[in-house]
Specification:
The complex is a heterodimer of chains A (about 100) and B (about 375). Chain A is mostly beta strands and about 100 residues long. Chain A has one domain (about 15-95): OB fold (Dihydrolipoamide Acetyltransferase, E2P). Chain A has no helices and 5 strands. Chain A has strands at about 15-25, 40-45, 50-55, 70-80, 85-95. In chain A, strands 3-2-1-4-5 form a 5-stranded antiparallel beta sheet, with no helix packed on it. Chain B contains 12 helices and 11 strands. Helices cover about 35% and strands about 20% of the residues of chain B. With about 375 residues, chain B is an alpha/beta fold. In chain B, a hairpin with a 4-residue loop joins strand 10 and strand 11. Chain B has helices at about 20-35, 50-55, 60-70, 85-100, 120-125, 140-155, 165-175, 220-225, 255-270, 285-295, 325-330, 335-350; strands spanning about 5-10, 45-50, 75-80, 105-110, 195-200, 200, 210-220, 230-240, 280, 360-370, 375-380. The chains are: A mainly beta (about 100), B alpha/beta (about 375). Chains A and B meet through strand 1, strand 2, strand 3 and strand 5 of A and helix 5, helix 6 and strand 5 of B.
Chain lengths: ~100, ~375
């Protein structure tokens, strides 16, 4: 992270954004092989910040640059011999709103 | 600060050295460089290595290689800057000799990628990404390169086949290099049909991880002028950095560290882009070559991929003259030193089948991550 200013401030993102780019990994690191192949994306949040995260719940649907996505909490991977679960953010294509 | 010259070079074949450890590879390159310089020893050794800790369970490689190469109890340590470790080691050696503190510096790059294979190598390589914001999401360097490439294709309307010229050139040159890892040629049209590693990056796009070691010996230019037949001057040296996470950059398709390090090295050397005889760029992915050419000002934004008709050995701007990372292979922490050795051979006029005609000034550029670190050097024949 770029962090010239070390003071922190809590801020709630809406959790919605747009796909800047994406790829499907065929060659995963050891701690992600059981999820392989998976889709990774760079996502421009509506507040302007960009981040990198997996796209989940895609099923047979395709993804395109510019698609609208929303954040969900998911298991990212496991760590250590006891398999401690690491939770974090992934994104899915935005569901239709009522 | 005093001027510095390269007075000796050595490199091992690049490939899979199942019968040699990282210390053996490093010591072999050291011995070759000493023989080339006709020296018995040096005052200090600076070693570039990226993944010794995760591939080979071995750090502390400066002392290890100095000892194994029989250099005695000299000053020695390793430099780490991701895949730019070799270039950073060259920079460190340059500063040591330029300062007057060290007279003879050995700069070695050594890596044993085949100590880790498959998904454990991918995991081992991931330590040079942003652990909390990239690796934890399953990102890898090829995946990040792929996302830049897809965005570039989208913004500038470029087809996948538009990048093939970089890989075709690398392999055409690598075929002539007996030390290269993959000496096959890539035929026109084959590139866009290769299987994806992380789409749109495919097998003919990404450089292969490799084992290998290379070394250069640095000395004060003034000392070298009277005693060495063809000293090669380090005329410029520049390093710049950028965010580890690619997504933190305001404009991910602009490699700011490449621009800044090249500007610094060129300005120190007093050279313009049109005075360069050849470039050794960090062609780990074709998109990196295109973006590097644009960041340095060889091409407009979005036009770097169009330069492939100029980059052959007899072209206006030869690139990857010994095969580059793509064909010679990418021995990660050693790559920046291989670039230096190859440029020295070009400037001495001893590059044999890979020789660029009347090569006088070379720009070599080693990147860590997707240009998180950029190290640029200008080397000149006298």
């Amino acid at each position: 992270m770029t962090q010239a200013d070390v003071r922190h401030e809590r801020f709630a993102f809406a959790g919605t954004g747009t796909v800047y780019s994406y790829t499907t990994l065929q060659d995963a690191p050891e701690s992600f092989t059981e999820q392989s192949p998976y889709v990774l994306a760079m996502i421009q949040l509506d507040e302007g910040v960009m981040l990198t995260a997996q796209i989940t719940d895609l099923g047979d649907e395709s993804l395109a640059i510019g698609d609208r996505v929303e954040m969900v909490t998911r298991k990212l991977t496991t760590e250590g011999a006891k398999g401690m679960i690491v939770y974090g953010y992934k994104f899915r294509k935005m569901l239709p709103r009522a | 600060m005093r001027p510095v010259a390269i007075i000796g070079v050595g490199m091992t074949p690049v490939g899979e050295h199942w019968d040699k450890s990282v210390r053996m590879l490093g010591a072999e390159a050291v011995q070759l460089a000493l023989e080339d310089a006709r020296l018995e020893g040096v005052d200090a050794l600076y070693l570039g290595n990226s993944y010794g800790a995760t591939f080979s369970s071995q750090s502390h490689l400066g002392a290890l290689v100095a000892d194994y190469a029989g250099l005695g109890n000299i000053e020695a340590y390793a430099i780490e800057a991701g895949d730019a470790s070799g270039g950073a080691a060259l920079r460190t050696g340059y500063l040591a000799v330029a300062s007057g503190e060290v007279n003879f510096a050995m700069v070695v790059g050594a890596e044993k990628s085949s100590d880790a294979i498959g998904s454990s190598r991918v995991e081992g390589r991931n330590v040079s990404l942003d652990a909390d914001f990239e690796s934890i999401h399953g990102a890898t360097l090829p995946a990040l390169a792929a996302m830049l490439m897809r965005r570039y294709m989208y913004e500038y309307g470029v087809e996948l086949a538009g990048f093939e010229g970089f890989s075709i050139n690398a392999h055409a040159n690598g075929k002539r290099n007996p030390l290269a890892m993959y000496r096959n040629i890539i035929k026109a049209g084959a590139f866009a049909k290769a299987p994806f590693v992380s789409d749109p990056v495919n097998l003919f796009d990404g450089a292969p991880d490799a084992d290998g070691a290379a070394a250069v010996i640095l000395a004060p230019l003034e000392w070298a002028l009277d005693r060495v037949s063809q000293p090669i001057k380090i005329a410029g040296s520049g390093v710049a950095t950028d965010t580890l996470a690619v997504h933190d950059r305001k404009d991910p398709l602009y490699l700011k560290s490449v621009a800044l390090s090249a500007q610094k090295a060129l300005s120190q050397a007093g050279r313009n882009l049109d005075e360069l005889s050849l470039l050794e760029l960090h062609d780990a992915y074709t998109i990196l070559t295109a973006l590097s050419l644009e960041a340095m000002g060889f091409a407009e934004r979005g036009a770097g991929w169009r330069m492939t008709d100029k980059i052959g050995l007899t072209g206006d701007l030869p690139i990857s003259t010994f095969g580059g990372l793509k064909s010679r292979g990418n021995p990660t922490g050693a790559t920046g030193v291989y670039q230096a050795v190859e440029a020295v051979l070009q400037l001495r006029g001893t590059a044999n089948e890979n020789q660029v005609n009347s090569a006088k000034v070379a720009l070599i550029q080693n990147l860590g991550g997707l240009a998180t670190t950029a190290v640029t050097h200008i080397l000149e024949a006298l």
